[in-house]
Design a protein that fits this description.
With 209 residues, this protein is of the alpha+beta class. The protein has one domain (3-199). It has helices spanning 10-19, 61-68, 129-132, 180-185, 187-199, and strands at 3-8, 25-26, 48-54, 73-78, 85-88, 96-99, 112-114, 120-122, 124-126, 137-142, 145-150, 158-160, 168-176. The strands form five sheets. Strands 2, 3, 7, 8 and 13 form a five-stranded antiparallel β-sheet that branches. Strands 1-4 form a two-stranded antiparallel sheet. The chain starts with a strand and ends in a 10-residue tail after the last helix. The mean pLDDT is 92.
């Protein structure tokens, strides 16, 4: 597979051409509203941003109807078309990160990216509610010690089997509702604040990226 496809409107295509960028939206705006919830947080999906594509080369009438109202375009792009930036991790000196996120976007109020090596994911279709509504709380190892954490990256990768006709692939980004300044000043307090913010569904600085 060398290309992915997306059905969209003419205005959306014009915006892509004008800005030379692809917009990722919060899971709160996807076609299945159930994706917003996890097993332990009611609206955790708002911290997961997604751009949805299909691997299906043959044109699909249902997809034309759902996503372009039969009056739009079907666009094709190569896999991972995004510009890459390299910068030193501000939380770990000497560690360099290569990402589609430029360094200046690390410094946003109440919004810090989770750094995953893999941006593109093939959607898994399932009826297993443990996957559809994953538990995000995890016991992790940090500095040789056990600590509690929230694994946002379990979101956005599974959909109900009823959507299997889409053959969907997703670009996924995750953002913690806490600022880099807070993470650098007091990491433990920042983690507690992030937990509280997710539990209370506190909004990020923006709802798309």
């Amino acid at each position: 597979m060398d290309y992915l496809y997306q059905y969209t409107s003419l205005s959306a295509l014009a915006q892509i051409v004008k800005t030379r960028s692809i917009r990722l939206n919060s899971l709160k705006y996807v076609d299945d509203p159930n994706e917003l919830a996890s097993a332990d947080f009611r609206r955790a999906g708002k911290y997961c941003f997604v751009s949805s594509w299909t691997s299906e080369k043959e044109e699909s009438i249902p997809m034309w109807n759902m996503y372009s109202k039969m009056d739009g375009v079907r666009i094709r792009l190569p896999l991972n078309p995004f510009e890459q930036y390299t910068w030193e991790d501000p939380r770990q000196k000497g560690r360099f990160v290569t990402s589609c996120i430029p360094e200046e976007d690390l410094y946003q109020e109440n919004m810090f990216p989770v750094m995953e090596e893999k941006l593109l994911h093939k959607v898994n279709y399932t009826d297993d509610e443990r996957l559809l509504y994953p538990s995000l709380r995890r016991q992790m190892q940090h500095g040789g010690e056990d600590c509690a954490g929230i694994e946002l990256t379990r979101l956005g990768k599974n959909k109900n089997s009823a959507w299997e006709f889409q053959k969907e692939w997703r670009y996924l980004l995750y953002f913690m509702p806490v600022s880099l300044e807070e993470l650098l000043k007091d990491p433990e307090q920042a983690k507690r604040k992030m937990d509280d913010n997710i539990r209370n569904s506190i909004s990020l600085a923006r709802e798309d990226y």
